[in-house]
TrEMBL record:
Identification of the protein by name: Zn-dependent protease
Xref: Pfam families: Zn_peptidase_2 (PF04298)
Keywords: Membrane, Transmembrane, Transmembrane helix
Protein's UniProt keywords contain Membrane: yes
Organism field: Saliterribacillus persicus
Keyword Transmembrane: yes
Spans traversing the lipid bilayer: 6-22, 198-221
PANTHER family on file: MEMBRANE PROTEASE YUGP-RELATED
Domain of life: Bacteria
Length: 225
């Protein structure tokens, strides 16, 4: 019983700590003006144009840290604070999202794989617990196995997301430095923003993997009885 309580506490604590780190880091560097005096939108546009991605547009979107790249519509969407902001945080996040656009243009393998996994991962995320719980209640191990398989696709999506996000951050740093948007003194703070954001994906992957291992273990242990 105590073991399960500790396990669930960890599942809740890891994402919470990661989110707290992101918010704390973002809050700190959103108050620091960047040296280039460019808004996030201007940073994104410059990097896109320097890489010949004139077909990729930039849009403002609502919400805090809702920034993302839409590969279907070829749009980099930046939250209002980052779209209009002149902060170090806005600069880093804008460059990161453009990193995804560059990945898309270069047909980056892990990004393509993640796109292909979206439908089945979404289905797996919705159906895994339905099958597992139904199987446990009915004593039908074949349903539990189906749930574990569904969950494995959702976990695979989370794991594939890691190299995609880390690569986008690496591209962001390269572009910010090579274009002269940031100076040497700003490299450290930019890395802190990018690294903090990456923690959320690492936390999500660890939690998803832990859940998969737990239910898979339950299936195999039950099968041995």
């Amino acid at each position: 019983m105590i073991g399960y309580l500790v396990y669930f506490a960890i599942l809740m604590l890891v994402p919470f700590l990661a989110q707290s780190k992101v918010k704390k880091t973002y809050k700190k560097y959103s108050k620091i003006m960047n040296a280039s005096m460019m808004t996030g939108a201007q940073v994104a546009r410059k990097i896109l144009d320097d890489n010949g991605l004139f077909n990729v547009s930039i849009e403002e979107t609502k919400g805090m840290l809702s920034d993302h790249y839409d590969p279907r519509k070829k749009v980099v969407r930046l939250s209002s604070a980052n779209y209009h902001g002149y902060s170090a945080a806005a600069e880093a996040i804008a460059a990161h999202e453009v990193g995804h656009a560059i990945q898309d243009a270069e047909a980056y393998a892990f990004l393509r794989l993640r796109h292909k996994l979206v439908p089945i991962a979404s289905l797996g995320d919705k159906m895994a617990f339905v099958f597992i719980i139904a199987g446990m209640i009915m004593g039908a191990m074949n349903l539990v196995l189906a749930g574990v398989i569904f969950m494995s696709f959702a976990v695979l999506f989370q794991l594939v997301t890691l190299p995609v996000e880390f690569d986008a951050s690496n591209r962001a740093m390269t572009q910010l430095v090579s274009t002269g948007i940031i100076n040497n003194n700003e490299e450290r703070q930019t890395k802190k923003v990018l690294n903090a954001a990456a923690l959320t994906y690492v936390a999500a992957a660890l939690v998803a993997l832990a859940e998969l291992i737990r239910f898979a273990s339950m299936f195999f242990l039950q099968g041995d009885e």
